[in-house]
Design brief:
The longest helix has 36 residues. It is globular, with a radius of gyration of 29 Å. It is built from 17 helices and 20 strands. It is of the alpha/beta class. Among the domains are: 135 residues, Rossmann fold, CATH 3.40.50.300; 210 residues, Rossmann fold (3-Layer(aba) Sandwich); 70 residues, Helix Hairpins (Orthogonal Bundle).
Length: 597
């Protein structure tokens, strides 16, 4: 069944159309990943689908009674509310007691544990996660998510993937996280500015389909370029547009020329020459850092080599960005010292864009760093570099305030690379960058002759770029792991299993079997345990009856998706409670057996 149909949607904010006659249908069970270069209108399209923005033309048709949940890219809150009050705000009062447990569970999974904290005290990343929890707790027919993976760490992303995969409703989302797209989506929509192309399957299937489409386009382009060359030869003969035939050929030439230029401009290119890097790069000697009682880094040492590719992972707030700021000299060290080579020129791509004068023109912003840059193929002007970064000439005079968030992010990256650094330090570089830019950046880093240090939650990016992982493990400890993110995960899992085995063996050694002569301590119930022991059989039977009734209701309910979602949530909560009661039953009965001896 079609939940929502969009027909020929167009939208403009300037003289250049942002969306031009875009059409799509969203069916039950669809999990659509929307991708495309920054500035092509992805977020605007989501707002139109969610009913938060009007299209200039076109129609949106929704199934009667459809419920929609929407996560904006930059959520806003009522600042006087607490975290829990903000989430419960949209929940009917009679449901709040039932929903509160689920709210707390989701918030905890997303790294928010202080439920009474005022929302105005939250960081930008925490606000995004609270907003995400707020939309997840509402069962809806269609969930629309704009960059849900921004500001969440790898463990949170794993949990969110599983949560969304198990949702029965339809989902439309924008994300740059390619592993996330691969595991969650069953359809990919690529927005190109003047068209929306759909590919059945996940991100891997999209890549297969994209290759096939590009090959067809390349074949057509070769034919078009052949015609273009013929027309060019004809034009160069100096034929004047006197007759109708001459005029039509001139018009055809302009059309071919424009399409050829458009095809070539679709390919973003990164190419700069870098400053020479000497033998000594960065050396960290026994560095430590704490904030109050919170220890982030303890006695950490490492020597970065010229071609190092280090990825840094860990929970939010564990100290990853702090380490980068200490290297940059922004934060002081508590102990130890950092030595930086004389030839080192650092390019720092921070988690948030630098402060920009939004009245400044695009070309002026780039020229504030450099008017030209040296590449392997000669010198390129700031204007030429902008065009290679998918900023066509008509955008060079556009004020920064008219760019999308992703376009500003791409522009900020270009400015850093224009400075010709030989050490690149990235703090969450994949936030707000489109997949095409990320792919080209990864290719650029393959041949980058200097060192790369990157804090990132993007597992694909780390697998693609890193050859060593620093993992913040808490209490100031930082682990070293060779390889990319997947290698780290495998080794970390082995470490946890070995640690668990070691604890069990140690416990066995410290608790040898008592001799027959040893007098056992007297075992007895506490007052509360006695009361629990007397009532637990009845409580378990009651829970089992409730679950049986729920199973019957779920089996019969096939039409009301919202009610079915609520029934499944109640069943999950009862299952968890029953599991807990069964564990208590085992413990109490074992204790009762010991009391008889």
């Amino acid at each position: 069944m079609i939940l929502l149909n969009a027909d020929k949607i167009s939208k403009s904010y300037t003289e250049v159309p942002l969306l031009k006659e875009i059409s799509l249908s969203i069916h039950e069970g669809d999990k659509i990943g929307l991708i495309g270069v920054n500035g092509t209108g992805k977020s605007t399209l989501l707002k139109i689908l969610a009913g938060l923005e009007e299209a200039d033309s076109g129609t949106i048709t929704k199934t009667n009674g459809i419920t929609i949940g929407y996560l904006p890219q930059n959520p806003s809150f009522q600042k006087e509310l607490s975290v829990m009050e903000q989430i419960l705000l949209e929940i009917p009062e009679h449901e709040r007691d039932v929903r509160e447990f689920e709210c707390k569970t989701i918030l905890t999974k997303l790294g928010i544990s202080d439920f009474e904290k005022p929302v105005y005290q939250l960081s930008g990343g925490e606000k995004k996660r609270v907003a995400l929890a707020g939309v997840l707790v509402h069962p809806v027919d269609l969930l629309i998510l704009d960059e849900p993976t921004n500001h969440i760490d790898s463990e949170m992303a794993d949990w969110l993937e599983k949560y969304l995969v198990n949702q029965s409703g339809a989902i439309v989302l924008i994300t740059h996280d390619r592993y996330f797209l691969d595991r969650v989506t069953n359809k990919i929509g690529e927005l190109t500015g003047d068209a929306l192309y759909f590919y059945e399957g996940n991100y891997s299937k999209y890549l297969d389909g994209k290759i096939a489409r590009e090959e067809m386009a390349l074949s057509s382009e070769r034919k078009r370029l052949t015609l273009y060359r013929k027309e060019l030869q004809w034009i160069r003969r100096g034929v004047r547009a006197r007759g109708t035939k001459s005029k039509s050929r001139l018009e055809r030439f302009e059309e071919l020329k424009n399409s050829a230029l458009q095809f070539s401009q679709e390919k973003l290119q990164l190419q700069t020459k870098n400053s020479r890097l000497g033998k000594k790069v960065l050396e960290l000697h026994h560095i430590s850092k704490s904030f109050g009682n919170k220890v982030l880094i303890t006695d950490f040492s490492y020597t970065f080599l010229r071609n190092d590719r280090v990825g840094i992972v860990g929970p939010n707030g564990s100290g990853k960005s702090t380490l980068l700021k200490m290297i940059l000299g922004v934060l002081p060290l508590d102990k130890g010292n950092i030595e930086i080579g004389e030839t080192v020129k650092i390019g720092y791509f921070s988690q948030e864009n630098e402060e920009m004068d939004l009245s400044l023109r695009v070309i002026d912003y780039i020229q504030s760093e450099a008017y030209q840059v040296s590449t392997d193929h000669g010198t390129l002007s700031a204007s030429q570099m902008l065009e290679r970064f998918l900023f066509p000439s008509f955008m060079h005079s556009v004020p920064l305030g008219r760019l999308s968030g992703g376009e500003r992010r791409r522009l900020y990256l270009l400015k850093i690379l224009m400075s010709a650094p030989n050490v690149l330090i990235f703090d969450e570089p994949t936030n707000d960058l489109d997949i095409q830019t990320l792919t080209i950046l990864e290719d650029y880093l393959d041949s980058f002759p200097g060192a790369v240090i990157a804090v990132s939650h993007d597992r694909y990016f780390l697998d693609r770029v890193a050859v060593r992982i620093f993992a913040f493990q808490g209490n100031g400890e930082i682990g070293h792991y060779p390889g990319g993110y997947s290698d780290y995960l495998e080794m970390h899992q082995l470490e946890k299993e070995e640690q668990k085995s070691s604890i069990i063996q140690k416990a066995d050694k410290n608790n040898p079997k008592k001799s027959d002569a040893a007098k056992p301590a007297k075992v007895k119930f506490t007052y509360n345990e006695q009361r629990e022991y007397e009532s637990i059989d009845g409580e378990i039977a009651c829970l089992e009856d409730q679950l049986a009734d729920l199973d019957d209701q779920i089996a019969k309910e096939t039409s009301n998706h919202l009610l079915l979602q609520e029934l499944l949530l109640r069943k999950e909560a009862l299952d968890q409670e029953l599991t807990f009661k069964m564990e208590r039953w085992i413990y109490l009965n074992e204790l009762a057996e010991q009391m008889k001896k």
